[in-house]
Amino acid sequence: MKLLFKQKMFSWLDSYDIYNEQGEVVFTVKGQLDWGHCLKIYDSSGQYAGMVREKVLTFLPRFDLYTGEDFMGSVQKEFTFFRPKYNIDFMGWQIEGNAMEWNYEIQDRNGMTVALIGKEIFHWTDTYVMDIGQPEDALYVVMLVLAIDAEKCSRQS
Q: Where does this protein have coiled-coil stretches (predicted)?
């Protein structure tokens, strides 16, 4: 399953549409005014599906992930000098590759590929392709990619 993650061009808050291969919106992400990033995810019918919320007042950026109101885990940036690295306490997943350049692989605890993430260049807004192995993992992959994108945005501003 391939999904296209595309940031909306004119948006005061972080807003994204996520499309399937047929060009249909699968998820919509709406940023909320809050301390830190707060990204709410809605499915194609407009129903609330999950949230990525930045934990404020932490030494290193941390993002908590929720499906509905249920806490699922977190993503925290680790202290490194050159390449960003993340401590992922979510689904037993880990990241391999270069998250800084947006070409990385999400793996399960057995080293099996859950998703491949790649940034498309030559677009006006951030655009990523997510190649997801199992369709039931789509929401979870979207949440993880949003958390990493939000951390990168925080670091650049």
A: none
